[in-house]
Amino acid sequence: MNEKMQAIIDTKVEDGTVAMWWLGQMGLIVKSGSTMIVIDYFAVPFNTRQVAPPIPAEELTGVDAFLGTHNHIDHIDHPSWRVWAKTHPEAKFVFPRAHSRAVSNDGIADRNALGMNAGESVRIGDMTIHAIAASHEFLDQDKETGLFPHLQYIVECDGIRIHHAGDTVRYEGMMPAIKALGPINAELIPINGRDARRLRRNCIGNMTYQEAADLAGDVRPGMVIPGHWDMFADNSEDPGLFKDYVETKYKDSLVCRIPKVLEKIVVRA
């Protein structure tokens, strides 16, 4: 077995804590009790990526659920999902229901395909996954079905809540949706921003690092972690700027941690 994967499997998570490992971009492993999930893992080799996949897709093991926030390859990595559908035949796959057809093409059994929409929740082992709409530069809701193509997830387990913001900017109604689920203990948010240059080439964006810091300032998580800054040279940001802004503007209320790939992060209630 892959040594890095074995170390994660061997990690004993104490009661009242959750262990997390950042996988680059917005990728995250979350482990609590007997349950382990993987969110937005971009595991396929890609010619423009700056960071190699820390664990090859075929060497990932022991996962109870794979979550994807939206249908971009660095969030729902279809080549890897096709691998995991074979290597994890009992695992659940959680994704925006708007992308059901694309996910079904990955060979995932119907019983394991858990399409979600904003406001819905699903239980997986020791964890409950809550879905919130995300606005990936635009809040795109299908008028006929009411489905959102981009989601955020709040993972709740053992009295702890982890907010994975997916790809989003702030929109009206977002804060009440987060607050309604209770206090957030850790938050992973994108900081890469957006601009006309990227939009012209169909690269839709996220919060700037200042906007992300201000969102965290309102959410008041126990810990805030910047994401979506390392993978692509033309769609990145300096996480040090985010950390400096957080520690200057919210020095008495926020703890910021710049993650390192596969470094264990312990979250406490």
Explain the overall architecture:
The chain is of the alpha/beta class. The chain has helices spanning 3-10, 78-87, 100-104, 174-179, 196-200, 209-219, 239-249; strands at 17-22, 28-32, 35-39, 65-67, 92-96, 113-116, 121-124, 127-133, 151-157, 160-164, 186-190, 224-227, 264-268. Helix 6 (209-219) packs across helix 7 (239-249). The two termini are 32 Å apart.
Features:
269 residues, alpha/beta, seven-stranded mixed β-sheet, six-stranded mixed β-sheet, 7 helices, 21% helix, globular
Architecture blueprint of SSEs:
Layout: H1 3-10, E1 17-22, E2 28-32, E3 35-39, E4 65-67, H2 78-87, E5 92-96, H3 100-104, E6 113-116, E7 121-124, E8 127-133, E9 151-157, E10 160-164, H4 174-179, E11 186-190, H5 196-200, H6 209-219, E12 224-227, H7 239-249, E13 264-268
Parallel strand pairs: 3-4, 4-5, 5-6, 10-11, 11-12
Antiparallel strand pairs: 1-2, 1-13, 2-3, 7-8, 8-9, 9-10
Helix pairs in contact: 6-7
Question: What's the main sheet like?
Answer: 7 strands, mixed
Radius of gyration based on Cα positions = 17 Å
Q: Separation of termini?
A: 32 Å
Strand content: 15-25%
